[in-house]
Automatic annotation (TrEMBL):
Any one Gene Ontology cellular component term annotated for this protein: NADH dehydrogenase complex
Topology in membrane: Multi-pass membrane protein
Gene Ontology terms, MF aspect: NADH dehydrogenase (quinone) (non-electrogenic) activity; NADH dehydrogenase (ubiquinone) activity; quinone binding
Catalytic activity: a quinone + NADH + 5 H(+)(in) = a quinol + NAD(+) + 4 H(+)(out)
Record's protein name: NADH-quinone oxidoreductase subunit A
Compartments, record wording: Cell membrane; Membrane
PANTHER family to which the protein is assigned, alphabetical: NADH-QUINONE OXIDOREDUCTASE SUBUNIT A, NADH-UBIQUINONE OXIDOREDUCTASE CHAIN 3
Coiled coil: none
Residue ranges of the TM segments: 6-32, 64-84, 96-114
Keywords recorded for this protein, A-Z: Cell membrane, Membrane, NAD, Quinone, Translocase, Transmembrane, Transmembrane helix, Transport
Organism (species): Chryseobacterium sediminis
Length: 123
């Protein structure tokens, strides 16, 4: 097998990554605490000393997940403002118009989500 020299660092990094994962998993298995089988009190679910109530598989409202996704979407938007804020003089009017268009698209998306009632917790 004849690989170009540019692939060698990639293969070394992949090998180190796989090796690290393997050593971590094996180390955790053999060096970690050993759980005893059975239905003892120590193996039951426990949260801050409060007895468990209900089932852990209780479904959440879709509003929770929708709000989380919207938060991530609008939060990541802020990351794209940083390069503009650092170099706004170099971008000039063309950069300003590009950022204005970017913000306008997100405002349209925000108003759409708002009008659809995705931000209303009472519904």
């Amino acid at each position: 097998m004849n690989l170009p020299e540019s692939y060698i660092p990639i293969l070394i990094q992949a090998g180190v990554a796989v090796g690290f994962v393997a050593v971590s998993l094996l180390g955790a298995h053999f060096l970690g605490p050993q759980q005893k089988k059975g239905n003892s009190v120590k193996n039951q679910s426990w949260e801050c000393g409060i007895p468990v109530e209900g089932n852990a598989r209780t479904p959440f409202s879709i509003k929770y997940f929708l709000t989380a996704v919207l938060f991530v979407l609008f939060d990541i938007e802020i990351v794209f403002f940083y390069p503009y804020a650092v170099n706004f003089r170099e971008f000039g009017m063309e950069g300003f118009l590009a950022v204005l268009t970017f913000v306008a698209i997100f405002f349209v998306a925000f108003f759409y989500v708002w009008k659809r009632g995705a931000l209303d917790w009472d519904k």
